[in-house]
Amino acid sequence: MKVWIAVMAFWGIIDGSDGNLMKGYYKETCPLAEEIVRHNVQVAILRDPRMAASLLRLHFHDCFVLGCDGSVLLDTKGEMVSEKEATPNANSLRGFEVIDYIKYLLEEACPLTVSCSDILAMAARDSVFLRNGPWWEVLLGRRDSLKASLEGANRYIPAPNSSLEGLIANFKEQGLDVDDLIALSGAHTMGKARCVSFKQRITQPNTEQTFYDDRFKRHDTFRRVLRAQCRDSTRDNLLTPLDIVTPSNFDNHYFVNLLRGRGLLISDNVLVSEDHEGYVFKRVWDYAVDRDLFFADFAESMLKMGSINVLTGVDGEIRKSCRFVNAWI
Questions:
Q1: Biggest alpha carbon distance in the chain?
Q2: What is the pTM of this model?
Q3: Strands, DSSP E only, in the chain?
Q4: Cβ contact 13:25 at 8 Å
Q5: What are 159-200's pLDDT values in tens digits?
Q6: Residue with the larger pLDDT of the pair 248 and 82
Q7: Number of neighbouring beta carbons within 10 Å of residue 200
Q8: How far, in Å, are 37, 51, 52, 173, 192 from residue 42 at the CA level?
Q9: What are the catalytic residues?
Q10: Is the Cβ–Cβ distance between 291 and 166 less than 8 Å?
């Protein structure tokens, strides 16, 4: 499947519902679109390095609910409850103001031309690249949804305590396979998580595997440090880096950490602790020793994820504001 995605990406086309995503979609209608997005993502990251992970996560959380259609950006209006209020997103997702400002600038330059969903896709790519990660040609032409799904956000976004079996099933529902799961999990090489997200991982019995000689008990020490930081419920919102080695860079240290038992979330560690057939572990090992392989596979999986249930052609709309459908303005 990845070979086919790569071939389609090479020719600049991925099938949508009523049209295509393609390279250079705004070349004629808004030639400075990608430059405007890239510059303002760079400014946002310089002000707040954590914003790179936040913008990448926004794209992920958008695509896993209804598809890559900008539904995650909609505010609550009338009977429609925003996805921002879903359990995985509330007091957790961030970066909305960055997207708002980029959209404002694009509306000034090219009114009702660049979709919010395309802005998310471009901002995610730029966030990775600006933190020393891979670059890929984002295929564009998405349109924005007219609705949000609180139920979908609560159902389809993977929980931080997911089992490997649950993660595989969750990704399969989105048309993503095990290879995509492993590669996209590498996004956790950037960003931070709240204590409440990994408290279960540090309080449950230590049954996780490590794949090196832990003669100095570094794994136990890591758990003790986390336990001290998150010792009671008053610290539930304290933040800890997902990658303790290079928390602000996009690299392959996430996979090295997994092999050393230092994955922060349960859903990270299950990639090695619950892989009874060995295929997932082998891929983790491959990425831990070969950064370029991880970068290439991550870019392919991002292209594949970015094509989930996209709206094209006459479906949806190009929102004037990412927070509201046009009929509300």
A1: 63
A2: 0.89
A3: 13-15, 20-22, 192-194, 239-241
A4: no
A5: 999 999 999 999 999 999 999 999 999 999 999 998 888 877
A6: 82
A7: 12
A8: 9, 10, 9, 33, 19
A9: 61
A10: no
